[in-house]
Amino acid sequence: MWWFFRIISSSVFLLTIVLSIPISFDVGGRDTGLAYSLALFGFYFVYSAAKLATPERSRVRWTFTKALQTSQWVVVPSLLIWSLHNFAVDASSTDWVSRTIGGLGHRHHSTWTEWFFGNGGFVEAVTLGGWDKTLSYSSPIFQMAEGFCTLLVIQAAGQISRWLVNRGRSDTWVLLLLILSASIIASAVYFLWRVALFPSVGNIDATLIGVTVTSAVFLCAIGIGTGRGNPVESSLLFAYVVLCVYQIFTDYVQSPEAQAAAAEETANQPDFPPLPPIIMASYSTFVHLLGSLPSAVYSSLSFLHAAFQTIAPSVMISLVYRIIVFYCATRIIPAVREAGAQALMDDSILDDSEEANKLLGILSWFSPSILIAVYTSLLLQHFSASDNEGWTLRDGDAGGNTWRWINVAATMSLYAIELYLGKEDADGVSTHWKTD
């Protein structure tokens, strides 16, 4: 029964982080968002370090961790209010270096302590600036880690597919897995066709796409042909390559030309209901029921909708994908390697004999802090400010396309090395990336 409460608690935590950090950026500006995310990072880092440093059955650990778990429902909104109160800045103040140099020269502090520790002082400027630069320089690391964790997930999926085929009723599982792989490849080809229609794709971009897709198809064919891979691994690798290419050339939003074309097409269509009358009647009834809800519930739904509107679609998609592959890499894959389902619900064990599992175990302990850093880094890529329109989290130059290409090349290179060093019909993850 405790697993249900853990899922609920984790979901509430994730929703709180996903909504509160962009709200701090959108309401208070860049400094407010940085201060709030840094405070959250420090709070959950202390919580994870306390769990890691104390014995498992220690009363001190139980008391301290339970106190932090209970207090987080008060600490998180308090930190949000504190950051909004103390760190709101002008929309045009996006460069912390110029703001610090200029601010230290124009602010008049009465004492040395106030100049060093006070509001707008040296410690505040260096702390927020260091956190900003750390997140900026960590973006390539997060990108490369995404590719490596994806490769681990692909290998685990290949091992699971082999186990399903070899455990009995192999013909049924082979057919189902082939249908699944074909569906994944067909979906990837569709999005690749969408990329080919983007007006922003130039000659150099088309060349890079062609080389990348050709290399991916070649690797997939080699893996299936030699027996060192399988259709599931190949389809997932091809889909990830297409995903990276798609993210390079789009922000998951329509261009102004596409929006104008869609509006013109909608205006030219006859005024017919989009769905059958019985469905439209049910929809109207549902909307009427939503309108009759208490004002508090309606206001809460409106607040959630407004909060999600502040987040760029690419940020949400990248965050969800990285959460999934990171969770799989730190929890599901060790469980698959140990062939025990109970490992999915237990905390990671640090006395594993393999260094890779030790590293994944440590990362899983600090997963809340890593999640906050990754999410804040994604939001900063879309933060833009101007004197006329203020700041927003839905524009800005996301950048990082060079590192996305490097990530694609590195992921395919690692998979190629895996195919070269692997054995035919090997047990997948059980023999991959081991350090004896």
Structural description of this entry:
The protein is an all-alpha fold. The protein contains 16 helices and two strands. It has helices at residues 2-28, 30-53, 59-86, 96-106, 112-117, 122-166, 170-196, 203-226, 231-249, 256-268, 277-291, 295-309, 313-338, 355-365, 367-381, 401-421, and strands at residues 384-386, 390-392. A two-stranded antiparallel ribbon has the order 1-2. β1 (384-386) and β2 form a beta hairpin. α13 crosses α14 (355-365). The chain is globular, with a radius of gyration of 25 Å. The two termini are 38 Å apart.
Layout of strands and helices, then pairs:
Layout: H1 2-28, H2 30-53, H3 59-86, H4 96-106, H5 112-117, H6 122-166, H7 170-196, H8 203-226, H9 231-249, H10 256-268, H11 277-291, H12 295-309, H13 313-338, H14 355-365, H15 367-381, E1 384-386, E2 390-392, H16 401-421
Antiparallel strand pairs: 1-2
Low-confidence stretches: 90-106, 339-353, 425-436
Shape: globular
Provide the succession of SSEs: HHHHHHHHHHHHHHHEEH
Walk across the major sheet and give the strand order.
1-2
Any idea what the radius of gyration is?
Answer: 25 Å
